[in-house]
Amino acid sequence: MPTKAELAAAHGRLLPDVIAEDLDVLFCGINPGLWSAATGHHFARPGNRFWPALWRSGFTPRLFDPSEQESLPGLGLGITNVVARATARADELTDEELVDGGRRLRSSVLRWRPRFLAVVGLGAFRVAFGKPRAGVGLSAETVGETQVWVLPNPSGLNAHWQLPELAEEFGRLRKAALRPG
């Protein structure tokens, strides 16, 4: 558990992507929180429901700890962020940062070629991709041959979506991403 000083020191820190070529799904957070930057693990803050939603939706065979993130590419999964720098809250990001992050994200997706890009955060997706009326689910937006799927933000601060509904939405993506055979 990071100390208050370690969390403060993590502000602005960059968190490396967990990525490989030809993933089934590249999950994309808004940006790392201080807890994630301090620990070096994506979606690491206690109360974040990303890892439980992955498990309950069937993406992982068991509940993974954020420290096991390097196991994801072996399951065809990866993690990146729209904006790389860590902040205490996503609302510290400017629209310009999100738009710039969206351009960087598109370049990364074209390089790595995942089958699906799953952006976890509707508001960030709307700004980064210039789609103010976008909703949760499969988007008409594509990046090259990569299909884009918008998921709710799994942060514990997102009270509009509880874990069962998050897992159900993640499960819709999982069914779409399953390879035949």
TrEMBL record:
Residues covered by the Uracil-DNA glycosylase-like domain: 16-179
Pfam families: UDG
Keyword Nucleotide-binding tagged: no
Statement: the UniProt record of this protein carries the keyword Hydrolase: yes
Sample GO molecular function, one term: pyrimidine-specific mismatch base pair DNA N-glycosylase activity
InterPro entries from the UniProt entry: MUG/TDG, Uracil-DNA_glycosylase-like, Uracil-DNA_glycosylase-like_sf
Keywords: DNA damage, DNA repair, Hydrolase
GO biological process: base-excision repair, AP site formation
Domain of life: Bacteria
Listed NCBIfam families: PRK10201.1 (NF007570)
Listed name of the protein: TDG/mug DNA glycosylase family protein
